[in-house]
Amino acid sequence: MTTATELPHWEATPEDLKAATREIKAAIRARIEASGRTVEEIWEVVTAQLTEKVEEIEAAKARGENVWPVIEYTDIEAGTVTPEQLAYLKSRGCVVIRGHFPREQALQWDQDIVDYVERNHFFEDYKGPADDFFGSVGSKPEIFPVYWSPAQMQARQSDRMANVQSFLNHLWTYESEGKQWFDPDRDSLYPDRIRRRPPGASSGGLGAHLDPGTLDLWMTEAYQQAFRHLFDGSVEAYDPWDASFRTDGPQYPGTTMCSVFRTFQGWTALSDMAHDQGVLHTVPIPEAMAYLMLRPLLDDVAEDDMCGTTVNQVFPAIEQWHPLLMRALVGIPDVQAGDSVWWHCDMIHSVAPVTDQQGWGNVMYIPAAPWCGRNARYADKVRAAFEAGESPSDFPEEHYERTWPDRFQPSQLNATGRRGLGMPPQG
Ligand SMILES: [Fe+2]
Fold first, then answer.
1. If pLDDT is split at 50, 70 and 90, which confidence band does 139 have?
2. Which residue ranges does the record annotate as region Disordered (predicted)?
3. Distance from Cα 344 to the centre of ligand 1, integer Å
4. Which of 70, 92, 115, 276 could form a disulfide with 284 if both were Cys (CB 3.0 to 4.6 A apart)?
């Protein structure tokens, strides 16, 4: 495509963030205007479309309906998810998979993790939170910087996990422009941590934010191509399920970065959790990204401001700039141990505060991170971390498991595990 207005781009974090912000905002505005439409006209289209969805969600909430789609794992495995269920899932961009694992299996994994960290004297050795991404109160951590327990690896390489990841990945368009952007049937086993929040815990929760990137979303060439329809006046063609140009580009480093491309973020419940006990909320509208990306271009935002988004902090979704979207924030329904929860990678999410929590709040974070250029590069680092029992490079360098003899061993990898770590099949 030839355009009258090419966008400047920065493949690494610009030295002068404010200058780059001024420059890119002016360039995107000019590019939109080259289409014959103004930014204000585009904004009208976006807000009209989103207002309709927000009102639909508000009405469903007011009727006491469950806004989150719920799909039974057995239907995924049997291929009997209906077209209506699929359409609803795509409309909301998030889902609870019921019975993803048998409840007893999940409760056993939860106990196995406790045994694993206790056997290895984790609580005696724990040095406190190494980052402030998740706050921690009290003497025991809620987020365990533990990546290589047998329980986590068994879940990551299980057929049930592979089936769900594949099902979710196929909701995306992964072939276009003569290229396959990712392999929907091969996951890269992105290792993440565990949360165990005990009964009686009080937590301030986590503010609404999104995780796919920060200023790089506007400033790198790959993201500019991925969001091309938002930046060139053809916003009606923007498709949040199109993976084109998203799976190979660079990202600006930061303490909260996720190096891989995830189609969905997710976690698997290791305890039963009631919907009012400090659980995950989302704005279940995948198209909301259009609003988030275009809002800074309006003229009530300072020229050097991206509505508060900057490097090294999560992308905030806030009442001041995103009031329409915040009206649609909605929590998950009650879940049981063994259910899993998934949300589109661009989706606004938060964790509600809780006081004197009833029951446990235990999850293991396992997303869908299908094989692609970016994820293959990170898999090299993951494999090295796995072999050494180290913290993966996206996370603080805590390395508690280096000396733990009973961490998951390479000999225990199955075919899915080996493929996910970029290792050759066992010969
Ligand atoms: Fe997040």
1. low
2. 389-427
3. 11
4. 92
Per-residue pLDDT of 22-69, as tens digits, reads: 999 999 999 999 999 999 999 999 999 999 999 999 999 999 998 999
Measured between its terminal Cα atoms, the distance across the chain in Å is 46
What is the 209 CA–ligand 1 centroid distance (Å)? 6
Assess contact for 264 and 367: CB atoms under 8 A: yes
Distance 207 CA to ligand 1 centre (A): 9
Cα 349 to averaged position of ligand 1 atoms, centre (Å): 6
CA 268 to ligand 1 center in whole angstroms: 15
pLDDT at 384 over 90: yes
Alpha carbon of 211 to ligand 1 centroid (Å): 5
pLDDT at 269 over 60: yes
User: How far is ligand 1, taken at its centre, from the CA of residue 258, in Å?
Assistant: 10
Residue type, 320: Q
Q: How far is the CA of 301 from the centre of ligand 1 (A)?
A: 25
**Residue 266 forms beta bridges with which residues?**
342
pLDDT for 165 equals 98
Pairing of the two strands 206-210 and 349-351: antiparallel
Q: How far is the CA of 345 from the centre of ligand 1 (A)?
A: 9
CA distances from 143 to 129, 133, 228, 243, 343 (A): 8, 10, 37, 31, 20
Each residue of 304-354: pLDDT tens digit? 999 999 999 999 999 999 999 999 999 999 999 999 999 999 999 999 999
Report CA(214)–ligand 1 centroid distance (Å): 12
Are the beta carbons of 17 and 310 closer than 8 angstroms? yes
How many angstroms separate the alpha carbon of residue 127 from the centre of ligand 1?
24
Who's near 39: CB < 8 A, 6+ residues apart? 29, 32, 33, 294, 297, 298
- 42 C-alpha to ligand 1 centroid (Å): 28
Strand 94-98, strand 70-72: pairing = parallel
Which pLDDT does position 257 carry in this prediction? Answer: 82
Nearest-angstrom CA–CA distance, 59 and 257: 35
Mean pLDDT along residues 87-93: 97
Mean of pLDDT over the chain = 95
